[in-house]
Automatic annotation (TrEMBL):
Stored InterPro entries: Beta-barrel_TonB, Beta-barrel_TonB_sf, CarboxyPept-like_regulatory, Plug_dom, Plug_dom_sf, TonB-dep_rcpt-like
Location of the TonB-dependent receptor-like beta-barrel domain: 422-882
Family the entry assigns: Belongs to the TonB-dependent receptor family.
Ranges where the TonB-dependent receptor plug domain occurs: 278-356
Pfam families in alphabetical order: CarbopepD_reg_2, Plug, TonB_dep_Rec_b-barrel
Keyword Magnesium included in the entry's annotation: no
Keywords for the protein's UniProt record, in alphabetical order: Cell outer membrane, Membrane, Receptor, Signal, TonB box, Transmembrane, Transmembrane beta strand, Transport
Subcellular localization, as worded in the UniProt entry: Cell outer membrane
Organism of provenance: Psychroflexus salinarum
Name listed for the protein in its UniProt record: TonB-dependent receptor domain-containing protein
UniProt KW Signal keyword: yes
Length: 922
């Protein structure tokens, strides 16, 4: 190991840049590290180098120099390092960051009065730039604060302060948001954003910084700042301080953020919540929060603030997931073992998101640990789950993979019931993410997701559907204020139905939707008061609405295919987070979206002034490939603001308007995989919505308790609905069956959360209403006399309680209590005769309601012992879903039997469902 000169070890301070030798040398090297290059220079010249080898790394260099000054060669070699050098006669001394002088700067020994006099004459910057930086790196245990050198000193710089940026993540590779980074001696600081990034300006010289946050270790570092630099941190999680919080919104975000209607779910802490069949379920947990519900137990899709299920944008690593459920809604299609951050925007939707009216579910696959191989396994009564974290290049790149599957087919085959012998009910999914950090500024992420479901219970129909998603993102820090990310995604959803019977009408049918998107997202830190986000995106839709094919050669079914639909949706956006004052924060954004539907296509034409049906059809209009059929577009305003009434009490106000160009076609009361998709065209206009929200947010007792009260009012245009008795299956004239009308929704959401202590959890209550009005120009296009009537998912009262009580560090109890108003339904109310035939008369649409829904779940949780040195850490969950055995109705339907109309109720889980699940992590 090479050593410093004696005087450098004694003083350990930075001096100024000195004269270099003028002698010229010739040198050629290829694919050598810096140490090897310096040794070659020593062998060919009289110079001798003094340095520590571990400063220089193993990066390979190549170069060729002819009669070049030694100083120029060294400048090239060290330009991407923090190494400076000092040449004195035939000795070259290397330093980290600092510069060595052989004389003191002018004014170095001036008195305080003399310095003040110079500053008064306006030469302060020049004089201070000449002063060296002194620091003492103590080795005493009582003062063992690590010293880190930032950047590289430049004798020509006259700056007094420099920019430091970086990223803070956990040892598991997860970004740490909301972490306070404080500089006590400067009374300044900053907070990491949702991706763990931070940016702070520090004065030149020695600075002591402190990092403080909930659930992570506190950390102190001494920074010697020579120039702008990048510094990343990996922190240990501090589980003892975090306690047993189930779902945690960052304390600072709850009161300080300008956005309304935002929920964040900590996926790693939902394991104690009792759920059906022992499967952790991210999206089911989301439905226990105010404003988010489903049309019924095990229903696919989610209704957010009175919106339809197709009005939610569900993203995994920026890629769209069209059907995020398994078993038609019983399980979530998203793996909790591999999912990191979950943010749900139901009020203030950032300008970067578009294409849906009601909400955005933004999920990210977490990054694997880059240091250690890790894994997690779960074994439940009908499902198994495994995830692995694999370091690829230590400290640089890693891969996380996860897979889930069910062995319910095996269970069905063991049941002694002839009706179930040919049944199938299975699913599996895979997810993976590769992360590579090229340096402190560049990062690559590659993600993939695939899921498959097959379902057939005592039926002659076999349902199957698949999701496929691929996402590629490359992010780069351009400079101290500017950073960007380029994202490319592709999503594909396919549904298929195979029908077999004893007659010659076997068939299989299905539909596919595929979309590809490219977007550029930029962030600019203008100053402390302004943070700008802006970008551009382009999305290509390719929809195959449906086709039917004969099931075999004997089938009498004629093949039929609905023509494909194609469209492009583009958007530009800009958003500014503007800190007007210490109390007022405004987030203002503008998004402009533009939509184009194009051929090839054949579009039906109809007589003007008459309803669209077969009798008014006048022919078709043909469009060639690429020819524009219809265009839509418009501005989308996103404005929200926060005002501090007190330091821990704020009020927020927001307004959003949104456009949606894709629709689902379904005449079911709940979402189902059989729903198909339709793009906006000449007949079906894009949906539009406006939402206003006002909320009050307060924290108590050092952020242990959080209380929020938020109200909203929403209006919508061009909501898609259907005529009475509409035929939507493989209909080439779908415009004759659909209606578009106005909607309105309003509600109040209350959430009380206790984040710490032996007893923790939250209580949520929502009062909400959702209505639609279908008032066409003709009687057949009008429903309920053109008046507003409740939507299929209008449920005024919704109450949830999610509680956890910790007996010891290893044992705890958890409980869920859910109550919801029954959803609307249309009942038969009488009979009538017409042309010697008897018909059933129905009430106005959605005039009645099915019975109310309530459910209690309990679980007992057992953690393994907390020894650090052990192969795996285990967790047992013993739960009972629907403890009270409530026969909650899923739907109510009517059957005519011998001239008598009979009502029937279907239920999903009418008895208590016990479950034992075993998890272990290694």
């Amino acid at each position: 190991m090479r050593k410093y000169l004696l005087f450098l070890l004694i003083f350990n301070y930075s001096l100024l840049y000195a004269q270099t030798a003028d002698s010229k040398i010739s040198l050629s090297f290829e694919n050598k590290n810096i140490v090897e290059v310096l040794i070659e220079i020593e062998e060919k010249t009289k110079y001798q180098f003094f340095f520590e080898e571990n400063w220089l790394g193993l990066k390979k260099l190549s170069g060729e120099y002819s009669q070049t000054k030694l100083s120029d060669i060294l400048n090239d070699i060290f330009k991407e390092t923090n190494i400076n050098y000092f040449i004195k006669e035939n000795r070259v001394i290397l330093t980290r960051g600092s510069i060595i002088y052989d004389e003191l700067a002018d004014g170095f020994l001036q008195t305080e009065e003399e310095i003040q006099g110079i500053e008064a004459d306006g030469v302060k910057e020049k004089n201070q730039a000449a002063n060296p930086i002194f620091y003492v790196n103590s080795t005493k245990k009582s003062n063992a604060v690590e010293t880190i050198l930032i950047g590289k000193e430049d004798g020509r710089s006259v700056k007094n302060s420099y920019q430091l940026e970086g990223r803070v993540i956990s040892k598991q590779g997860e970004p740490i948001s909301g972490l306070n980074i404080l500089v006590p001696n400067q009374n300044s600081g900053t907070v990491t954003d949702i991706d763990g990034n931070y940016n702070i300006r520090l004065p030149k010289g020695v600075n002591l910084i402190e990092m403080r946050g909930i659930g992570v270790e506190n950390l102190k570092k001494r920074l010697v700042v020579y120039s702008d630099g990048v510094l990343n941190f990996r922190l240990e999680k501090n589980f003892e301080e975090l306690g047993e919080v189930l779902i945690e919104a960052n304390a600072r975000d709850n009161v300080k953020s300008a956005l309304t209607g935002v929920e964040k779910i900590n996926v790693s802490e939902i394991k104690t919540i009792p759920l059906v069949l022992g499967e952790r379920d991210i999206l089911k947990v989301a439905t226990t929060l105010p404003g988010i519900s489903t049309a019924g137990e095990a229903a696919s899709g989610y209704n957010v603030r009175g919106g339809k299920t197709d009005q939610n944008l569900i993203l995994l690593d920026e890629g769209v997931i069209y059907n995020p459920t398994h078993f038609f809604g019983i399980f979530s299609g998203l793996n909790p073992f591999t999912t990191g951050n979950v943010s749900i925007y139901k009020g203030s939707i950032p300008a970067a998101y578009g294409g849906r009216l009601s909400s955005v579910f933004d999920l990210n696959t977490r990054k694997a640990d880059k240091e250690k191989f890790k894994g997690e396994v779960s074994i439940g009564p009908v499902t198994g789950n495994v995830s692995l974290e694999i370091p690829i290049v230590e400290g640089k790149s890693s891969l996380i993979v996860g897979g889930r599957g069910t062995y319910s087919d095996w269970i069905l085959n063991t049941i002694d019931d002839e009706a179930l012998q040919d049944s199938q009910a299975s699913f599996y999914d895979f997810v993976g993410k590769y992360n590579h950090e090229f340096d402190n500024k560049d990062e690559l992420n590659v993600s993939g997701y695939y899921s498959s479901d097959v379902f057939s219970i005592t039926s002659d129909s076999l349902f199957s559907y698949t999701n496929r998603m691929f996402a590629l993102s490359y992010s780069k820090v351009l400079n101290e204020k500017h950073q960007g990310e380029l994202v490319a995604t592709n999503s594909n959803y396919n549904f298929n139905l195979d029908y077999e019977s004893d007659f010659d009408n076997n068939f299989d049918s299905g539909y596919t939707i595929n979309e590809s998107e490219v977007k550029l997202k930029m962030k600019y830190l203008h100053n402390k008061a302004h943070t700008l986000n802006y970008g551009i995106s382009a999305k290509y839709y390719n929809v195959s609405p449906g086709e039917v094919r004969p099931g075999n050669s004997e089938s009498l079914i004629e093949p039929l295919s609905i023509p494909k639909e194609r469209a492009v949706e583009t958007a530009v956006y800009i958003e500014d987070s503007f800190e007007v004052s210490d109390k007022l924060l405004i987030n203002a954004g503008l998004r402009y979206s533009f939509y184009t539907a194009f051929g090839p296509a054949e579009i039906n034409t109809y007589e003007d002034g008459l309803p669209r049906n077969e009798t008014t059809n006048t022919g078709v209009e043909s469009y060639d490939s690429g020819e524009v059929i219809e265009t839509y577009g418009g501005p989308e305003v996103r404005v929200s603001g926060r005002y501090f009434l007190r330091p821990n009490f704020s009020t927020k106000l927001s307004y959003n308007n949104t456009y949606q160009y894709i629709h689902t076609l379904s005449n079911n009361t709940t979402a189902a995989p059989t729903d198909t998709y339709k793009l906006s065209d000449s007949f079906i206009k894009p949906q539009r919505a406006n939402q206003y929200a006002l909320g009050f947010f307060k924290n108590f007792d050092d952020n242990i308790y959080e209380l929020s009260l938020e109200g909203y009012y929403k209006t919508a245009d061009n909501l898609l609905d259907y005529k009475v008795g509409a035929d939507l299956f493989l209909n080439n004239n779908i415009e004759t069956e659909v209606l578009q009308g106005d909607g309105k929704a309003y509600g109040v959401e209350l959430l009380l959360r206790k984040k710490k202590g032996a007893l923790n959890g939250y209580l949520g209550y929502t009062y909400s209403r959702s209505f639609v009005k279908l008032a066409g120009d003709f009687q057949e296009e009008t429903v309920n006399n053109g008046d507003f009537f409740p939507t299929n998912f209008d449920k005024p009262h919704d109450f949830s309680a999610v509680m956890n009580y910790k007996l010891t560090q290893r044992f705890s109890f958890s409980a869920n209590l859910v109550y919801q108003t029954g959803r609307p339904v249309t009942y038969p109310i009488g009979k009538y005769n017409f042309n010697n035939s008897e018909y059933v008369m129905y009430s106005d649409r959605n005039q009645f309601r099915i019975p109310d829904y309530y459910r209690l779940d309990l679980s007992f949780n057992v953690e393994g012992n907390h020894k650090i040195e052990k192969f795996a850490h285990s967790f047992w969950n013993i739960s009972v879903y629907n403890v009270l055995g409530r026969n909650n109705p899923y739907s109510v339907f009517f059957v005519t039997d011998n001239g008598e109309v009979k009502a029937y109720q279907s239920s999903i889980f009418a008895i208590p469902i016990p479950t034992i699940t075993y998890n272990f992590r290694f």
